TrEMBL record:
InterPro entries registered for this protein in UniProt: Papain-like_cys_pep_sf, Peptidase_C19, Peptidase_C19_UCH, USP, USP47_C, USP_CS
Any one GO molecular function term: cysteine-type deubiquitinase activity
Biased composition (Basic and acidic residues): 843-859
Compositional bias ranges of the Polar residues kind: 76-88, 371-390, 805-815
Biased segments, Acidic residues type: 916-929
Organism domain of life: Eukaryota
Protein name in the entry: Ubiquitin carboxyl-terminal hydrolase 47
Pfam family, one: UCH
GO CC terms in record: cytosol; nucleus
Transmembrane segments: none
Amino acid sequence: DITSAKTVNERLTLNLPASTTLSKLYEDVAHKAGYVNGTFDLGVSYSEMSLSDSAFEPGGKRNFLQLTDKDGEQPQIASVTDSSGMDDSSQERFIGPLPRDGTAGCSGDYSSPSYSYSSILNKSETGYVGLVNQAMTCYLNSLLQTLFMTPEFRNALYNWEFEESEEDPVTSIPYQLQRLFVLLQTSKKRAIETTDVTRSFGWDSSEAWQQHDVQELCRVMFDALEQKWKQTEQADLINQLYQGKLKDYVRCLECGYESWRIDTYLDIPLVIRPFGASQAYGSVEEALQAFIQPETLDGPNQYFCERCKKKCDARKGLRFLHFPYLLTLQLKRFDFDYTTMHRIKLNDRMTFPEELDMSPFIDVEDEKSPQTESCTDSGAENEGSCHSDQMSNDFSTDDCVDEGICLDSTSSTERVLKPKVSLLTFELFSVMVHSGSAAGGHYYACIKSFSDGQWCSFNDQHVSKITQDDIRKTYGGSSGNRGYYSSAFASSTNAYMLIYRLKDPSRNAKYLAAEDFPEHIKSLVQKEKESEEQEKRQREIERNTCKIKLFCMHPVKMMMESKLEVHKDKTLREATEMAYKLMELEGVVSLDCCRLVKYDEFHEYLERSYEGEEDTPMGLLLGGVKSSYMFDLLLETRRPEQVFQPYKPGEVMVKVHVVDLKSETIASPISVRAYLNQTITEFKQLIAQVWLSAETMRVVLERCYNDLRLLCVPNKTLKAEGFFRSNKVFVESSELTDHQVTFTDSLLWKLLDRHGNTIRLLVLLPEQSPGTLANRTLCQKQQQGSSTSDSQKSSDASDFEHIESPTQEVDSNSSLCVAADNRELENRLRATVGGAGGASSDPENHFACEERSDSEVNNDRSTSSVDSDILSSSHSSDTLCNADSGPIQLANGLDSHSITSSRRSKAHEGKKETWDTAEEDSGTDSEYDDNGKSKAEAQYLYFRAEPCSQDDATWDTQKLVHVDKRITLAAFKQNLEPYVGVTSTQFKVFRVYANNQEFESVRLNETLSSFSDDNKITIRLGRALKKGEYRVKVYQLLVNEPEPCKFLVDTVFAKGMTVRQSKEELLPQLKEQCKLDLSIDRVRLRKKTWKNPGTVFLDYHVYEEDISISSNWEVFLEVLNEPEKMKSMSQLAVLTRRWSPATMKLGPFQEVILESSSVEELKEKLCEISDIPLENLEFAKGRGTFPCDISVLEIHQDLDWNPKVSTLNVWPLYICDDGAVVFYRDSTEEPLELSEDERNELMKKESSRLLKTGHRVSYSPRKEKALKIYLDGGPAKDPGQD
């Protein structure tokens, strides 16, 4: 039951007979839940259909349903008499007004159990409608509900009349608010959307994901309303309701002269905890008193008195002159912690009364006293005083209520209290609560109705009744066993904004009743009611619409997929016509040649057809309206002369491949339907009706990849042998003696094994290969000569070939690419398997080939690599019952390839591919001796290459290669030699991954088992690696450049080579390719770990002995300004950098060579290069990756300066290898004093610099989007903005 938050975690369990009707189900659930039948929805249709016929699963299985609102209205609670007959279990669950459990929906911390919608009532009980949270619009919902529950604001909004001729209703903020308020008052829904209101603000969907301050929204919205209401009766509404006045003054303590200025306010911001204080104010009254408490200006802060003509001690403060009718208090719970440099939320306890007497804070002194003068200069002075920190601005359009200041309470001459204190009593009616931390949280509102005095919690779409105790729980402070603490992520639930209304019977208004609405509001109510009825009807249609996935093998567009949306009362005939149009079959296939069948797309299984049920409603056929179905529908097509085959429930699909051992071919699959309880003998007889002889027939089931099972037990059933919904078998019947040998030693097994291990690769060749291209030219001519006479080129050669040696490939009698005339091929196929599709071989061809007719080729799906023969538009011709019909000729075809390979391809999708160059590789295997000759004898390999397309331009550059994936890389390269034009030692093989990254495959003894169908391979010219060789990428290390890592060259290092020998081979290469003329004594090689420089390699080090090396290794080359100082592995090379606080700058990197890991030695070396006295030198280790960039605004305090350790190889330094970065400074050097502008400018520069280098900018906070309401319908698009 998800109709309310109270019941969402409860479950009702009913045990019913399978024959129970759906209407009886509704009655039983209503009885069990205590609801009135017909006022809720279960997601299934209300009908006389039984549960068993509605796809419910019997036999003790659980069937889950959701009890939801009907038409947006909550279920009606049954009366006591209706529910008196409930069983005991239903009595345990309370239905109706929920009992109070001592906590309210708005109390406690939002992350604690006490913050729950524990007392949610039906809308009919509270009488109020909630607002849907678009994403993070809780702050908006809280304010809108507060304004709606303010009678004066609501009534004034109703009295405003929208003129459609003057403004677009979509962008009119008052009109959309008016509509929203009308819906809140009259709608039957539980909650309504606010999207129309936010659209009138000019907001797009991204604004719904922005969290804003509710007080900020209040000011901005009031400002927007004032702009929209100009020249109307409501022009001064905001000021009349929310604006107060205060006096900002400075009074000379020597002569009594006072300078002042009158300001207006919309809210009063009250400080929770004074700056620098540890104790917070305990109540709103105490905070108000502190707000008006004047401060004394003395000492250096003395005030220049115009009358005394000198600087004098003075008293500066604020006095309230007038309070608004609606008084808004903002509790300033969000502050900034200067110790942690984070925003924090103050969760201190602050009480507030239900009735607030503001008379102690009012000033009724005559403003025109002869002692008092208004002074512009002093007014300007005041603008820079503390008042500006507490006031938002001087505009009356600000959204919150008053800010006030009062005189010193000890000075009786400066304050005169208003005698009529009763006129300044304010009544609390709205508390906007924030639950969360300074980093984010949730708003909701606790609001009192002026009609009956009942408090309610308006928490987005949930509205619940609460009590005064719940209001008191929003005072704040620690809750439960959690002690008080303040931090950036301290979270609690407490009041943030309070709204009071002046108690004045002459002004206090009541809510307008519906019968008292103005005529234009009555029209609007009627309009919204009609719109709601239309929505209700549309929802009813949606609720009765079946949405199911639809597939169709389109004769032209191949496999198509869509979603069929059909009303449950539409018949199967009508649904077929809808699917026919949806799949765009008009003009291609007639409607009479189409039918809908039940289909399982995952298993590619045709479950059943619907013969004789053309007039049955779809709701019955599909088992009712559901959010999702466990099956799909297939729109099946046929030729006019064909007849649809009936598919009965319980049948299984078997794809039969006929194997011809003589020609070593495997035919395309033919679909056969069988029963799981059939025996192997019966299954053979079924197949024998069309193909082969049952006596000599061998049947092999491929249960999964490389799992071939010979079905040899005659009386065993298909189910016992492991048949499922969709199956794949190979059948063979010949007079050969092959069936006499063990299955795993037979020719049949070898052929199937070869078939199952063949993969298809896309090979990209070099555009211009050196040497003779005779092989390629010959191959190209052979392909052109075998093209079909009717210009329909196809490649129907087998996926595998027997190549005894690469040299045979140039023989014209053994062409690698065979294509046959389609019609001749079709005739041969029919001759072999009785017209149902079969296999043949070309007597002139030495290679086995798998050939398929156009119709069968079309059965491969273009959208997936999974074999889809059952989806063919020629289903009936490919099934057993209609085997004598010929296949349909279709317009295009797909390249034939192994179905097993296709399935593997799908299985490989999503798998993480592994590199060919593992780190643990100890070297590159080689099948070549020093002269590049092949060591291995010619092997029995399966390899065939064909063009990717018939485009002559791509013949030389792209090949589609079908190859046994158990072939070694060495043999694979040998087979590619004729196409590349050079020997296999002169080209390299690169595997291309999904992100187009290429990695060289170098292990010649490894197979292609990690490859799968349609993987890409790029061939590049260049010397292939010999055994013990490694390809190495060389980067230049430039420590003082903005980009310290620069790629230079690819080179080859060999096992056993010294570092000096590798440098000798590398330098000529650098001179030729990079124009770098370097001396061998002025360069060093060092370890590279991503961008970090590591161990320095010494000249006498030997690769594989002293230095571990791996495939695709990377190394740094560093150019030295002086001869190498590193002579021993016991030395340590450290990169140091000086930080100058006085100039706020970092110096260049300088390398220091240490003889030991002593901190003292490091400090002595730093003293030598910097002239800083040893006792003043401080150092710190850099953080992160090289070059350990850090903002100059952070480095002075953020690093761990002068760690108390004596050696470098312990915590917190852990400097154990070359390449560590160390910063150092003079401790006596004071940091540069920066003005605010200079700091901001430097912050921008540092941010830009660090972002370019990719380093974190920790001091730059998340940029918050300003809250704006656009009066012209939306923000102006600035193309220059990001």
